[in-house]
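Standup notes
- DV: blocked on the single-chain target, sequence here:
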Amino acid sequence: MAERDNILGAKVKHNGVFDFKETYRILYEWLVSQGYDMNEKTYKEVIGAGGAKELEIEWEAIRKVSDYFRFLLKVDWKIIGMTSVEVEIDGVKQKMNKGQFEIGVKAILIKDYENRWENRPIWKFLRGLYDKYVIKERQDQYEGKLIGEMDEFLAQCKAYLALTGRR
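- DV (later): unblocked, structure below
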C-alpha cells in the first residue's frame, strides 16, 4: 500500500460578496494548468430556509512527479448561507453571491504509489531504509515544492476573493 505523508494544511475564509461559479472555474483551471488530474469526490448542495444554500465540495488533485512520488492536494469547500445578490460594477449590474466561504487544503506526498515495494516483507523493510537514508534529500525537496504549490493555490484563491469582494 502506498505510503502517504501529510505535509501541511491551510484554510482561506471569506465572508461577503463573491462569484461562486467564477471562483470554482478559476481554481479548477489553475490546478489543471499545473498538471493535476482532478477528481470531484463530493458535491453536496442543500437549500435552506429563505433560499440560502449550503455547499460542501471535495476535490482530490493528483499529480505524478516521479516514478516513486505523487502530489495530492485535498481541497474542501464549505459555503454557508449563499444567496444571490446584484452588484453594480462600473455602472453595470451583475449577479454575484453572498455568504460565508471557506476552502481548506491539505498537501499530501504519496510514496511508492504503484506498490512496487510491498510484495515481500524484505522489500518493505528496504523501502524504509531507502526512504530514510537514500532519498531523504529528494523527499525534502518534493515536500517543499508541494507546500509551495499549495501556498500558490491559496494565494490565487485569496487574490480572486479579494478582487470580487471589493466590488
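- Follow-up: The longest strand covers residues 69-89.
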